[in-house]
Amino acid sequence: MKILIVGSGGREHALAWKMACSPRVSEVLVAPGNAGTALEAKTRNLPLAVDDFDGLVAAAKKEGVAFTIVGPEAPLVAGLVDRFANEGLLCLGPTARAAQLEGSKSHAKAFLERHKIPTARYQSFTDLESARRYLATHPGPQVVKADGLAAGKGVVVADDSAEAEAAAASMLAGAFGAASAKIVIEERLVGVEASFIVLADGLRYVAFPTSEDHKRRDDGDKGPNTGGMGAFSPASAVTAELEKTIRETIIEPTLRGLAADGHHYRGFLYAGLMITDEGPKVLEFNCRFGDPETQPLMMRLKSDLLPLIEAAFSGQLSEELVQFDPRPALCVVLAAPGYPGPIREGAEITGLDHQEDPDTRVFHSGTRDENGHIVARGGRVLGVTSRGETMDMARARAYQRVRAIGFADAVYRRDIGQRFGGRS
Ligand code: AMP
Ligand code: GLY
Fold this sequence. Notes:
- The protein has helices at about 10-20, 35-40, 55-65, 75, 80-85, 100-105, 105-115, 130-135, 160-170, 240-260, 295-300, 305-315, 390-405, and strands at about 1-5, 25-30, 45, 65-70, 90, 120-125, 140-145, 155, 185, 190-200, 205, 210-215, 215-220, 220-225, 230-235, 265-275, 280-285, 330-335, 360-365, 365-370, 375, 380-385.
- It is α+β, with helices and mostly antiparallel strands.
- The protein folds into 4 domains: about 1-95, Rossmann fold (3-Layer(aba) Sandwich), CATH 3.40.50.20; about 125-180, Dna Ligase, domain 1 (2-Layer Sandwich), CATH 3.30.1490; about 190-320, D-amino Acid Aminotransferase, Chain A, domain 1 (2-Layer Sandwich); about 330-405, Phosphoribosylglycinamide synthetase, C-terminal domain (Glycinamide Ribonucleotide Synthetase, Chain A, domain 4, Alpha-Beta Complex).
C-alpha cells in the first residue's frame, strides 16, 4: 500500500519513517519532503509544494495512494482535506472550517469560552485605540497574538503594558500581514507548559503520551518565540491524575463542542496547555501533530502507525491499537543562523553518516541535497532524537549525537530536557 505525506519538516520525516516501518506499506511518498526523507527506506519525495492542491490531487490519483496525511497547518486551513474529499480521496486532517481552531486565535478563544473549556481571559481587537484602552484597564503581564497563522512566531509574551502596546501596534500595522489585522490580547498564565496530542474521529480519540516543547530560542527560556527548539516526552508536569483531568476538562469537551458546532473532526488535535495552580488551561489548539513533538512521540510509538490511521478512517479508533515505549525520548533541534528571523542558508552539514545507534535518529527539517552534499536551507534544519532508560540518558545520547554533527553557526539550545528535572 502507498501512502502520501504532505509537508517537508521534521514532523513529516518522523511520520514518514514510522509509516515506512509498517510491513504493509510498500512506499511512502512525501510532498515535497527534504533531504532526509529522500534517504529513508521505501520513501520517495515528490517535487510538489504543500499549496499545490491540483498537483497533490493528481499525484494521489496517479500513484494510487491509499490515503494522505497532512503535516502542516497552512494546507489544512486552506482546505486541502475538503478538496481531497471532493475528489473521493481519503485525507487525514480536519476540514478548513474545523481547522479554524488553529487558523484563527479569536475563533479558538470564542470556541473555548462558548464550551466552557479553561483558558486565559482575553479580548480581540482590530484597532490600536481599543487595544490601548484595554491594556490601560488591564495592568499586569499580557500576551499579544496575531489572529491568523504566523508559523509559531506571532505571539509576544509581554512583561508590561508598554511592551504589550508596542507588540499590538506592530502587529496591527501589518507585522504578519493579513494574519495580524486582528489580534488577541490575553492574560499571561503562569505554570509549566505541556502538549497533549490526540488522534480523533468525531467523539472517539486515542491519546499520545504527553510531551513538552521549548518555544524560546535560547537557553533558560530566553529569546524570541520559535516554532519549537526541542521537545521531550513525557511532559514534566503531567501526572496520571492530571492527564485524566486534561481528558475530561479539555479534550472531551473540545470534541463534543466541535460536534455540537457541526464538525466531524478527523485528524490530529494538539492542545497546547499551561498547567497552572488552578489546573490545566488551553494556550492554543493546533489541528495537526506538533513539530518537534512528533519526533520523540514517533520514537516512543512501539506499535504500527498504519492500523491506527486506518482506524481513524473506518471509525474504529481504540486505545488498544497503540503501544508506547515506557522509556522517555527527547529531541534537540538545530536551526540555521538567524532563526527565527531571516536565516543564512547553504551551510554544508557534516557528520550525518555517523553510525546510528538504535535509540537515536536524526530527523531532517530544512535540508536540501546539492549534488550529494546536504546543506541547511530552512529555519529549523535537523532534530536529533534519542530514547533512554531515563530522561537524563535520552538527553545525554541526543547531545552526544548533536556534537558529532556540524554546520556553520548552527543554533541550538544546550538545555533541552533540563526542565524535566529529577523525575525519571
Ligand atoms: P501559542 O502559539 O498561542 O501557543 O503561543 C506560543 C507560546 O507563547 C506558548 O507556547 C507559550 O509559551 C506562550 N504563551 C501563549 N499564550 C500564553 C499565555 N496566555 N500565558 C503565558 N504564555 C503564553
Ligand atoms: N511545537 C509546537 C507546534 O508544533 O506548534
